[in-house]
Amino acid sequence: MKLLILFLLISSGLAKEPLHWAHIIDVSDKHEFYKSGEIISRPRDAWQSLFSLVYVDRNLSTIKDCLFYLVPGELPGVVKIKTIYVEEKCDDYLLKPGDKEIRNLSSLQFSFSLEKLKLTFSGADFKTQTWEAIIHSLKSSSSAQQNLSSAEFKGPKLIYLAPVILPKKEKNKIVLKDNSLCHDINDDCQEVTPSSCGRCKSSWYETPNGCPIGPKFCGIHVCGEKGRPACRRGMKWQRKESDYDCRTDSTFAYCRKGLRIECEGRKAYCR
Q1: 26-44 pLDDT tens trace
Q2: Does pTM surpass 0.70?
Q3: What is the DSSP letter of 25?
Q4: Cβ atoms 67, 53 nearer than 8 A
């Protein structure tokens, strides 16, 4: 199965929450106003930072998944997840690309209890799906079930090591040079490592490979030019959401006039 595709295609009914959500030790960066159980409907067409889920990786680094929501209005809703170190602020990544995204949502709500957080979202086809995060905490405030922003947690006696690894933490963050691979997606459309594109010196660009999300490299985004990655066509134009392979069907990408697509594995380049 192609894990990343399943993550993105909520309409299939097969997408699952990340495995490490079974080992959450804290909830932080909570939105000030949204309450447990309410459908988030305001402000329309605006990104909101909902909360973050804190856990420990195999390197014993404390990291967190920031959850952001583009409230649907003129545009369909989007949930994006960004994995960062716990001392960083989710708000700093509000308008930056996420590591994972769930698109074409019509509604979203969360429900909260002492030991579990449920995230329920519906797609444009009105199919509903619920993700769960298990919170291994000892205490929480009595009002936690009523309002997410009032929940307070203390660390558990046990540490659960989640199967997610971020780059080793250093005193000064490593700045990635141009042409460095910053988000590794393999030819089976699986995410090999979380995105570190926020550490690129300049910007980053995606190399289309027929997957919903392709591998990303540091550098200035110039697609369709000679020697550069081909430009990705929109998913609606493609009329199917995944499973293209440049070697058999390169219609998911295009180049400027006079150039043609050449394949490097699944990846599409202009020559």
Answers
A1: 888 888 788 888 899 888 8
A2: no
A3: -
A4: yes
